[in-house]
Amino acid sequence: MFVWKDEFELGIDKIDNEHRKLFEIANKGYELLKNEFYVDKYDKIMDIIVELKEYAEFHFSEEEDYLASIGYKKLFTHKLEHDSFIKKVESFNIKEIDYDQDKYIQEMLDFVVTWIKEHILEKDREYID
Q1: Is 124 annotated as a binding residue?
Q2: pLDDT band for position 64 (50/70/90)?
Q3: 63 carries a ligand binding annotation
Q4: pLDDT band of 93, cuts 50, 70, 90
Q5: Which residues are CB-neighbours of 128 under 8 A, at least 6 positions away?
Q6: Annotated binding residue at 43?
Q7: What pLDDT score does 2 carry?
Q8: Does residue 85 come out as left (phi exceeding 0), alpha (psi in the -120 to 50 range) or beta?
Q9: 3-state DSSP helix/strand/coil % of the chain, to nearest 5
Q10: 119 among the known binding-site residues?
């Protein structure tokens, strides 16, 4: 399970709440990974990927609007980071899911959680300092 920690707080309620939601989506993947009652997880994996992509696009748009409103000088670079995340999610090879569903979920979660944590702790922290 992926736990929200105080160190992820930026002090901007709207952004912090949206970041928490990204953790919640990742936790759906974790719960699916640990659920031994689903023999075929393909549809659930696809649901999580779609939700992750759609919510990330929403969040990134909101965050970029906020950054524009405060005149953040590194907005373009920050947007490129967001774009790379979306491209990676879009590149998840859905044909590979069926070969080893749990392995696929784990690899997907490793990428998503690492990216989100690093992005919040490094890139997002830059605009509040």
Answers
A1: yes
A2: very high
A3: yes
A4: confident
A5: 10, 11, 12
A6: no
A7: 82
A8: alpha
A9: 75, 0, 25
A10: yes
Q: Is residue 16 annotated as involved in ligand binding?
A: no
pTM: 0.92
H-run or E-run covering 16: helix 13-34
Q: Quick one: tokens of 112?
A: 């998503």
Side chain identity, residue 53: K
The predicted pLDDT at position 68 comes to: 97
Query: pLDDT tens for residues 51-61?
Result: 999 999 999 99
> Is it true that domain 18-126 has CATH number 2.40.110.10?
no
State yes or no: 82 annotated in a binding site: yes
Q: Where are the domains of the chain?
A: 18-126
Length of the chain: 129
